[in-house]
Every structure is written in C-alpha cells, then in structure tokens.
Amino acid sequence: xxxxxxxxxxxxxxxxxxxxxxxxxxxxxxxxxxxxxxxxxxxxxxxxxxxxxxxxxxxxxxxxxxxxxxxxxxxxxxxxxxxxxxxxxxxxxxxxxxxxxxxxxxxxxxxxxxxxxxxxxxxxxxxxxxxxxxxxxxxxxxxxxxxxxxxxxxxxxxxxxxxxxxxxxxxxxxxxxxxxxxxxxxxxxxxxxxxxxxxxxxxxxxxxxxxxxxxxxxxxxxxxxxxxxxxxxxxxx
Length: 237
Prior knowledge:
Layout: E1 9-12, H1 23-31, E2 36-37, H2 57-70, E3 76-81, H3 88-95, E4 99-105, H4 116-119, H5 122-135, E5 140-141, H6 154-163, E6 167-168, H7 170-173, E7 188-193, H8 202-210, E8 215-218, H9 224-227, H10 229-236
Parallel strand pairs: 1-2, 1-3, 3-4, 4-7, 7-8
Antiparallel strand pairs: 5-6
Helix pairs in contact: 1-10, 2-3
C-alpha cells in the first residue's frame, strides 16, 4: 500500500456505538505519535440523554465537522466505520480543505442523497423499522443482538452489549440533506473483514476498487477495532 498521512485522525463510530469503541486503536496510534480524536455522535453512548426524534444524520455530520473546525484540525485522515460512511459525502463537502484522505472501515460508501436504509440489506432494513415500531416508540432503533458481530468471547460480547445504546430511526430513514460531494474522486482506502460470511460489505469494497483506492482485508469481523486492533492500526499507520 501507499504510505499513509501522518496528520491527525478523526475516528467516527457506527450506529449504536460511541467513541468508546476506538479506545484501543487510538491508544496504540497515540503511542506512535499520532493525534486521535474519537467523538461520540449525538444521542449515543454517554450522549444518550440527548437522543430525540430530531436527531438525524445531519446532526451527526455537524457533530464531526464542528469538532474538526473548532479544533482547527488540518491534514486530517477521516476514519469512518459502518453507518458513519453515510456522513462521508457531506463531511467532504464541508471539510475538503482540512482532509487529506478518508479511510473506510467496513463502511457504507453512499452516493449523495442515499439513505442508510437503502445501503444496508433489505432484510436488515425491514428489521430495523419493525423493531423501532415495536420496541422504540416508532422513532428509535434498539441495539442489535451482539451475536451478529461474532465476537470472540462471551466476555467481550457482554461488554459490548452493555455499551450499545439506541440509534435514532431518522438517521437511517432520511438522507443527509446538507450539501454533499462525490467521495469517489477523493483519496481513500478501504478495510474489509476477511472472515464474515455472508459479507454484506463486499459491494462497498468493489466501489472502493472502482474508485482506485487500495483495499485491504483482515480477520476480525465487523467490529475489527475491538477484535483485531493491530490490523486497524496497521491500516491507519
């Protein structure tokens, strides 16, 4: 692979998670001398008290962009996991002069205007909507069963389950409305889990290859930052 940038990294978590999931990766990168920022998106994890019907993907775009702008970060590698990929086009439009690359970790790669419910599998989309209706007052999605993450131990599965919090349905059901850029014309790289079957992110790895980005594979499943942090650190350092 080509050498990576050595500026700051902004690590953005996926749905139901929080900045906590990046702790081990960030610690290892910081020991290498990298600056890491792992914001928690509005309404999630320790910010759960702020969850509301109005919390949207646009809210989450502003969370990340406002952090980067407030700290006047430049030369940033933006790292997007899973749902956070949905935010990529709007973040690129708003922050282009501050970013040098977007690293996609098992992340969706949207075209401007797409909704997260379109970017996941039809089965998963139907399940999320149904669970929001039956268990989430019609507007929030309860955390998924951690069994789907195929974590390596019961201890890790229980620890992750304790930390997952509801995700606003609006963030999946509505597109980002902020101005957006086409990410496929910007420098990027992609990391895919090699040990998932079925592997729903193969189509996004294919998009990455079509864009001319390097695509790496490593074992560890969808939550590779927890199960194989060394591979993620190697991908980013």
